[in-house]
Amino acid sequence: MIRIFRNxxxxxxxxxxxxxxxxxxxxxxxxxxxxxxxxxxxxxxAGSSVLESLTVEDVWVQGSTVQVTVxxxxxKANIGYDVNLQVTSIYVDGAALTNCEGVAKVGDPNYNPNxxxxxxxxxxxxxxxxxxxxxxxxxxxFKGLYPSGDLAPGSHVINVDTVRGSIFKSSFTxx
Amino acid sequence: xxxxxxxxxxxxEVIGTIMFIVILLFFFTNVYLWHDAASKDANxxxxxxxxxxxxxxxxxxxxxxxxxxxxxxxxLSRLWxxxxxxxxxxxxxxxxxxxxxxxxxxxxxxxxxxxVDSSGAFFATCEPLQGNTINVDYTLPExxxxxxxxxxVVNTMGVDVST
Lengths: 175, 163
Fold this sequence. Notes:
The structure holds 2 protein chains of 2 kinds. Chain A has helices at 2-6, 11-44, 76-79, and strands spanning 54-62, 65-72, 85-92, 95-96, 98-103, 120-121, 133-134, 139-145, 154-162, 167-174. Chain A is an alpha+beta fold. Chain A has 2 domains: 2-44; 53-174, Sandwich (Immunoglobulin-like), CATH 2.60.40. By secondary structure, chain B is of the alpha+beta class. Chain B folds into 2 domains: 2-50; 53-162. Chain B has helices at 2-6, 11-51; strands at 54-59, 64-69, 74-82, 87-97, 100-109, 115-116, 122-126, 133-137, 150-155, 160-162. In chain B, β1 (54-59) and β2 (64-69) form a beta hairpin. The longest helix of chain B is centred in the first third of the chain and has 41 residues, at 11-51. The chains are: A alpha+beta, B alpha+beta. Chains A and B meet through α2, β1, β2, α3 and β8 of A and α2, β3 and β4 of B.
């Protein structure tokens, strides 16, 4: 028995095989981790853009102030799971609304009492407490200024963009 | 030819590569199938939206808004009352309306006025559903036939119809 352990023949092939297996396992683990992380990120991010469903239910214009109310219909009752979304910007006739802000109402799924005033500004990254989320089943109102002054009577196009890259288009008519 | 097949050198690399590709394919197929299922779910919602037939009408003689589900059951989420002076919403509390022409929800305007929520939007309140009737605590402004308010109802699938 002692002779077997003292015999050093073929030690290097064994070490080489073990090392090779270790290197392959580490390499494969890294590769699969990347794939799994990529898949999960894709599902949570851009991949879920097909599931986003937003309705522009009301647009109210007073001079250059545009008040837009949206509804997120991607709910568990409709598609099997809740898909929350995040509004990044709102355009009217191709021009982004400035000073655009939204407010979550007390009782809304978006309302977080820890933040106190849940008002947020889409055009500013500073001091944000609420970053434009519209949770599934929630109605959220955004207000902003049309940059070119008062909106003229007639038909207008409104686009609501989300962080996943979806664009929800609607139109409204001013008399 | 026979010598090539009898030569076992490099067999492990070939098997390893094939297994690597098969496992990678498994993961990416998983993502593809998930995306396919998600697309189908989204398309299904679009089909439901198309089939969610609703109609809304306003009877100015008694200030009643009548909403009907024409083809399938719909769940009503919100009613908008739009005038020149204000856009006021009423949360309907997800009322289910059975399909059929004969079932309707009638809204009676019983007085009161709108309140301002924290976003600056105006809202009115309503009483719990009583039969097919909802009493909305809101007084319509005086209007001429040219300025009759526009009523819009939104269901839980995001479908809206206006008078």
